[in-house]
Design brief:
The chain is of the alpha/beta class. The protein has eleven helices and eleven strands. Helix 4 runs parallel beside helix 5.
Length: 313
């Protein structure tokens, strides 16, 4: 049996050698969100700026015996204002990541993608799960299971490129993307198979770069070499995929939750495509999963800094 969380632990150990990531923690007004931020701070993963109602944050800290004496608090009376204030901290260069606290994901993301005051880039914003699946040799990236409900082909181009860039930030040596559908053949009656084939051709034409991509592939022959062999699929991705791109949010959500609840997997989460990584955590997340999400954000921010430096230089 593998050591549980070994994949996540490697990420966390690597990031502890980096400078803590300045992170706006949005509305940390319950035990799990505040404790998660403090644990990430203790491990040296983030340097938190707590954004929310000052008195309420202090009350949660007092109740849970957390000392806030060393941490800046930016007062914002409501969760919506906290989200807006966090984006402003990023725009001012005071934060390089945003971490979700005890507010709804939609409320946070509305502030992030707001046209005038948000953190938009030329890319579509998308979500990735980085899944630590027991018995599977490497981490699996699944996209998009949380933000884009029924993405168009044009939007899928950005979703795919975001996931590829994430895999490179995580130092995956060879990025192999399987574009999933219910089958591995192109069927005009199944739109996701046609879009998968179109995305693969876009890769051939260098409209999407940085990975070996194949699709459509069914889940079994995407990750199991024996299933790919039995179906005689000749592909550098089949049976070896480390990134799984799903056709829509419903499929992705069900895949991620199936791995979590039936296979005992953990699911660190990150939103990409904005100016900075957005760490999405859930009250149900384990401490290890929260720390892994912070480590992923630190690596994404590091890759972004290096890219900007290369462009400037």
């Amino acid at each position: 049996m593998e050591r549980k969380h070994e994949k996540y632990q490697r990420l966390i150990d690597y990031c502890r050698n980096l400078d803590p990531l300045p992170t706006a923690v949005v509305h940390p007004c319950d035990e799990s969100s505040l404790m998660g931020a403090m644990e990430a701070t203790r491990l040296g993963l983030i340097a938190p700026i707590l954004v929310g109602p000052h008195k309420r944050i202090e009350a949660v800290a007092l109740e849970n015996r957390i000392s806030l004496s060393d941490f800046p608090i930016v007062d914002a009376p409501y969760s919506h204002e906290a989200a807006v204030t966090a984006t402003q901290l990023v725009r001012e260069g005071k934060a390089e990541a945003i971490m979700k606290g005890s507010l709804h994901t939609d409320e946070l993301m509305a502030a992030v993608v707001k046209r005038e005051s948000g953190l938009r880039t030329g890319r579509r914003v998308s979500h990735c799960f980085i899944m630590d699946v027991p018995g599977h040799e490497n981490a699996l990236i699944i996209t998009d299971a949380a933000v884009n409900i029924t993405p168009s082909l044009e939007e899928k181009m950005d979703i795919l490129q975001n996931a590829i860039d994430l895999a490179h930030a995580l130092m995956i040596p060879e990025v192999r993307v399987a574009i999933l559908s219910a089958m591995e053949t192109v069927n005009p009656k199944v739109p996701s198979t046609i879009e998968a084939a179109a995305l693969c051709k876009m890769v051939d034409r260098h409209q999407i770069t940085g990975a070996v991509v194949d699709g459509p592939l069914a889940l079994d022959n995407a990750i199991d070499p024996e299933a790919a062999r039995i179906k005689k699929i000749d592909s550098p991705v089949a049976g070896r995929a480390n990134v799984l791109m799903v056709p829509d949010l419903e499929a992705g959500n069900m895949l991620a939750k199936s791995l979590s609840f039936l296979a005992g997997a953990d699911a660190a989460g990150i939103v990409l495509g904005a100016r900075v990584p957005v760490i999405l955590t859930s009250r149900a997340d384990s401490v290890m999963t929260r720390m892994a999400s912070c480590a992923v954000a630190a690596l994404v921010a590091k890759a972004r800094r290096e890219s900007n430096k290369a462009i400037a230089g």
